[in-house]
Specification:
With 297 residues, the chain is of the alpha/beta class. The chain has two domains: 107 residues, no CATH class; 119 residues, Ribonuclease H-like superfamily/Ribonuclease H (Nucleotidyltransferase, domain 5). 37% of the residues lie in helices and 15% in strands. The chain has ten helices and eight strands. The longest helix is centred in the C-terminal third of the chain and has 17 residues. The radius of gyration is 22 Å and the shape is elongated. It binds zinc ion (ZN). Zinc ion (ZN) binds next to loops.
């Protein structure tokens, strides 16, 4: 198991704005500057505005333009700290905690920054699971005063799949779905599983289609047995619920996928803690920006 990137190591690597700036340049343009308008490779650096001006079309580009941090006014050092805290915190961090730790004046800004970094944690969907897997679905949220005991009302269905050899868990994916229908579950598993892998389910009707694409093992629980037929995916779901309850007080279903992405981002990198900061920073660079109004409107 790799060591975590310690606070000491982080501070040594990024003691000031300048180191953050150089590092961001290297990560954003690994092959050198590239103008977003004309594709030209050369630029003057305008020190006063910290912008790059293309030598061909003269367009000025800020370092964070086109990244998830577009138009955030905080110094890069603050953004790096935020990525570091979010990436390395085992349980996640609330907007209020981020505000306090980083000395951000407005709660809205801290909340927006947290959502921006969390959105960069979404799966790239380029690495479907390759090992044997267990799949199931669950319901999250919706438990408000006066709504108890009313079944799934107000809750969001979530599809879950985890790689397992029966003993340990590998990587996993979680997605909100409109309803546990054949169509939704097919789509979820087709995107997140490599063709031909063996997937075990509880035999729920909507999984009936699966045999065409995967080696489907419907495991129906017998009344005489207390054995959990899907032990690993149930552990994953239990861990998710515990984390959501422990870290976040209110959980609007509108943003639930972002929370699932955060959980999975950490879960799938729990053995790669040394590189988790770099990974998340690079994701922030390639993730499109959005504004406070986009999130709340
Ligand atoms: Zn240009």
């Amino acid at each position: 198991m790799e060591p975590v990137l310690s606070l000491y190591d982080f501070l040594t690597r990024f003691p000031s704005e300048e180191e953050c700036f150089q590092y961001f340049v290297k990560k954003r343009w690994p092959d050198g500057f590239r103008c977003p308008r004309c594709g030209n490779h050369a630029a003057y650096f305008i020190e006063k505005h910290r912008r790059f001006q293309c030598t061909a079309c003269r367009r000025q580009t800020s370092l964070t333009a086109g990244t998830v941090f577009h138009r955030m006014r905080q110094p890069l050092l603050t953004l790096f700290w935020a990525v570091y805290f979010i990436a390395t915190s085992k349980k996640g961090i609330s907007a209020m905690e981020l505000k306090r730790k980083l000395g951000i004046k407005s709660y809205q800004t801290a909340w927006l920054l947290l959502h921006k970094i969390r959105s960069a944690m979404a799966s790239s969907q380029m690495f479907p699971l390759t090992g044997d897997a267990e799949a199931d679905e669950t319901f999250i949220g919706g438990r408000r005063p006066g709504k108890r005991g009313r079944g799934a009302e107000g809750k969001t269905p979530v599809a879950a799949v985890v790689e397992t050899d029966g003993k340990t868990m590998g990587r996993a994916y979680l997605e909100t779905i409109d309803a546990a229908t054949t169509e939704n579950l097919t789509s979820f598993l087709s995107r997140n599983l490599s063709p031909g892998v063996k997937v075990t389910t509880d035999g729920f009707l909507a999984y009936g289609f699966l045999s065409e694409n995967f080696h489907h093992v419907p495991r129906v629980r017998s009344n005489s047995s207390d054995d959990d037929t899907l032990p690993k995916v149930h552990i994953l779901i239990a861990n998710l619920k515990m984390w959501l309850r422990g870290t976040y007080n209110c959980l609007p279903s509108k943003h639930l996928q972002h929370y699932l992405d955060e959980f999975i981002f950490r879960f799938n990198r729990r053995w790669k803690l040394e590189s988790i900061f770099d990974k998340l920073l690079v994701r922030c660079i390639v993730t499109p920006s959005f504004t406070y109004a986009d999130l709340t409107g």
